[in-house]
Amino acid sequence: MTGKGVALQGALAVVGLAAAYLTWQRQPELQAGEVFVLDITKNDLQKIRFDDEDAKTWAELQLDSDDNGSFVALRLSEREAPEAKKPASAPTPSKPTPERVVRGSDAAQTLYQRFAPLRATRALGVLDATKLKDLGLAATKKHITVVTRSGRRVFAIAPAPLGGTDPYLRDQTDGRVFVIPRSILSDFQAAATSLVEHHLHGFRLEDADRVSMAAGSAKQEYRVARAGDGRGVEIASTHAPDKPDPAARAWHERAFGLWPSESLGKGEMPIEGEPQTRLRLDYFARGRSLGWLTVAEASVSPGQSVSSTSPAPKKTFYARSESTLGWVKLSGDTDSLLTEGVKLVGGKP
């Protein structure tokens, strides 16, 4: 091939790559009846903030990254502690949930992507004061701020009036009003639950071929293989790889399915102080690290007295993994699960 031909091929390759990049940046074209509220690309979008003055809360979505790649980070405002009836002798009320940054869930990722570009199911144009009042936009205390590379746009948002289904959005810059999908508002309003990542791992147990366990100085390794009868996986000690251990498999399936009751923010310390690591698991596939899990036990809560005559204080357990930005509080029967795990490793319960 001549130099001219090589140059032509190179130019065509560059054009193809540019087209692929632009296709990735831009969402599919508008559906019938849809209009753009914000005609921006993923690369333009920097942050989305939802303010709810009625609930006295706010939530922010922003792209972030760590050793495992990029993700949507969710920043949540401080929230008041839930009110509950307490006896007169009860201690001071629990502290409010502090402002925190956590990893966003798949729902957070989807919500973030919906703003690049942001579509509306209908455009109503600029409405008069009476109509704005009828739609709830005149006095709404809910707003969405979208920060892009070229600046920021603020939108007032109001739930659908009685008999309606979808909320209304008003561009504070030019006064245009739109009808947008209901899930945008409902997801933001439930951000503290629906937009927080609760899964401790982004892979499946059957994706691993080896798991290493450590409890103090004691260590144990297990081989993981897909079960031939469709029952998930078979797990066996590497010392006896041809002898599947049903008890070990049952334990690892429970440990893999641990579910947090609360996710603390990045850099946030549990109220009891730094938890003490009791067990660590590392997952591998073909020699490559897939992820890890640390289960730790918290000390006695501050101000909680312990005496020889009082019952033993309830234990509190926390965990961290490759998918968490900080400690997560564990629910369920973690105590017995941890005891069984330590025994599997050969350590002291």
Polypeptide structure, described:
With 349 residues, the protein is α+β, with helices and mostly antiparallel strands. The chain has two domains: 31-81 and 94-194, Immunoglobulin-like; 205-345, no CATH class. Helix content is 21%, strand content 34%. It has seven helices and 19 strands. The chain has helices at residues 3-25, 106-113, 129-134, 182-189, 191-194, 246-256, 334-345, and strands at residues 35-38, 45-52, 57-66, 69-76, 100-103, 118-120, 122-126, 142-148, 151-158, 168-171, 176-179, 210-215, 218-226, 233-237, 260-263, 276-285, 288-297, 317-321, 328-330. The strands form three sheets. It has a nine-stranded antiparallel beta sheet with strand order 5-4-3-2-8-9-10-11-7. Strands 14-13-12-16-17-18-19-15 form an eight-stranded antiparallel beta sheet, covered by helices on one side. The protein has a two-stranded antiparallel sheet with strand order 1-6. Helix 6 crosses helix 7 (334-345). The longest helix has 23 residues, at 3-25. The radius of gyration is 26 Å and the shape is elongated. It starts with a helix and ends with a helix.
